[in-house]
């Protein structure tokens, strides 16, 4: 079907060349019209390939003979010199067709090789990413398991010889690592649900103070003695959101701030109304993040490279982004002028709110 289409286009090119020659016929002798047909042959070779171009050359000879070589409108040739013209035109047409078609084929071959190289590069990058993610997940699963196994093995083998304080420390270590493992697996499941579109927020009026209180309570054991200051807007009590999901967002942000804040530094939670939006910011006084990484801070498995600070699983902020966007909101991170990182959430207070 493609080949037939090419030959039909060849006929159209010859018809077009014939129409042009008919227009200029009063001003040109017939042999000069050959150049118009040669242009049609070149066009066919460049766009259609070798065989349609040769067919164009053949049809051009017939059209030129029939319409413009005396006696016109017949295939008879009064002057035998035109036979040489026909032969020369056809040979030149075939040569041009071969040359142009060869260039076209080489160009297509280079394009094909370039496309295959690009596909191979993308495939290699994907394999590298999958390998890196698998290594990261394996490491994050293995680390707490090793700690738990070590603590339990010590209790099993040396429990009778350990002091009560040592046994308690080992049990606390095992418990903390089990909680860490549980959070990581939970994050993986949440991320999977977000990407599958299975996690849909149940938005209803919720108490803002209750939201922040629930998040701080859930973080109580990890925050320890760290101070969390809270600033709430006057007169705003109920906001439309999914209390459970947004509590998880705040827990993740508080957990992230707690990791990077100085030992005695506080964490600041501020809520304010910006037009038709609720702005909710969690900020710390830690080292912040390199400017180049701010745009990737919400990517999956991305860990901020901060000296002497240990990153998490690289999933918490990514989950925050997914939940906030499921609310129709936005989330962004910025470095504070006096040091530290601030993560701001914008949630619409009403449907169709324009971003401030």
From TrEMBL:
Q: What is its EC number?
A: 2.7.13.3
Q: What is this protein called?
A: histidine kinase
Q: Top-down, what is the taxonomic lineage of the species of origin?
A: Bacteria, Pseudomonadati, Thermodesulfobacteriota, Desulfuromonadia, Geobacterales
Keyword Ribonucleoprotein appears in the UniProt entry: no
Which sequence ranges form a coiled-coil region, renumbered to this chain?
A: none
Q: What membrane topology is annotated for this entry?
A: Multi-pass membrane protein
Q: Which residues form the Histidine kinase domain?
A: 136-351
Which Pfam families did the record assign?
DUF4118 (PF13493), HATPase_c (PF02518), HisKA (PF00512)
* Gene Ontology CC terms, in alphabetical order: plasma membrane
Q: Which GO MF terms does the UniProt record name?
A: ATP binding; identical protein binding; phosphorelay sensor kinase activity
EC class (word)? transferase
**Organism, as annotated:** Citrifermentans bemidjiense (strain ATCC BAA-1014 / DSM 16622 / JCM 12645 / Bem)
| Catalytic activity, as annotated | ATP + protein L-histidine = ADP + protein N-phospho-L-histidine
């Amino acid at each position: 079907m493609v080949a037939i289409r090419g030959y039909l286009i060849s006929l159209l090119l010859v018809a077009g060349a014939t129409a042009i020659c008919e227009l200029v016929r009063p001003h040109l002798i017939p042999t000069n019209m050959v150049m118009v047909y040669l242009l049609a042959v070149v066009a066919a070779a460049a766009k259609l390939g070798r065989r349609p171009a040769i067919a164009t050359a053949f049809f051009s000879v017939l059209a030129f003979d029939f319409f413009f070589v005396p006696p016109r409108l017949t295939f008879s040739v009064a002057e035998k010199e035109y036979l040489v013209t026909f032969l020369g035109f056809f040979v030149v047409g075939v040569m041009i067709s071969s040359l142009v078609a060869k260039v076209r084929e080489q160009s297509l071959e280079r394009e094909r090789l370039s496309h295959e190289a690009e596909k191979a590069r993308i495939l290699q990058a994907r394999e590298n990413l999958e390998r890196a993610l698998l290594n990261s997940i394996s490491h994050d699963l293995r680390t707490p398991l090793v700690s738990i196994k070590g603590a339990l093995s010590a209790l099993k083998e040396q429990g009778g010889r350990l002091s009560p304080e040592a046994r308690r420390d080992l049990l606390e270590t095992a418990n903390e690592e089990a909680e860490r493992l549980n959070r990581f697996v939970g994050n993986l499941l949440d991320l999977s649900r977000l990407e599958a579109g299975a996690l849909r927020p149940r938005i209803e009026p919720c108490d803002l103070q209750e939201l922040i209180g629930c998040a701080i309570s859930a973080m109580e054991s990890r925050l320890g003695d760290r101070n969390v200051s809270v600033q709430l807007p006057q007169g705003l009590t109920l906001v439309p959101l999914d209390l459970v999901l947004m509590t998880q967002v705040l827990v993740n942000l508080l957990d992230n701030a707690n990791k990077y804040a100085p030992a005695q530094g506080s964490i600041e939670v501020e809520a304010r109304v910006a037009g038709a939006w609720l702005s909710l910011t969690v900020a710390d006084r830690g080292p912040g993040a390199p400017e180049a990484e701010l745009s990737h801070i919400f990517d999956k498995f991305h860990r901020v490279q901060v000296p002497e600070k240990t990153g998490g699983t690289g999933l918490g902020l990514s989950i925050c982004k997914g939940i906030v966007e499921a609310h129709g909101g936005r989330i962004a991170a910025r470095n504070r002028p006096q040091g530290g990182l601030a993560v701001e959430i914008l949630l619409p207070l009403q449907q169709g709110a324009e971003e401030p």
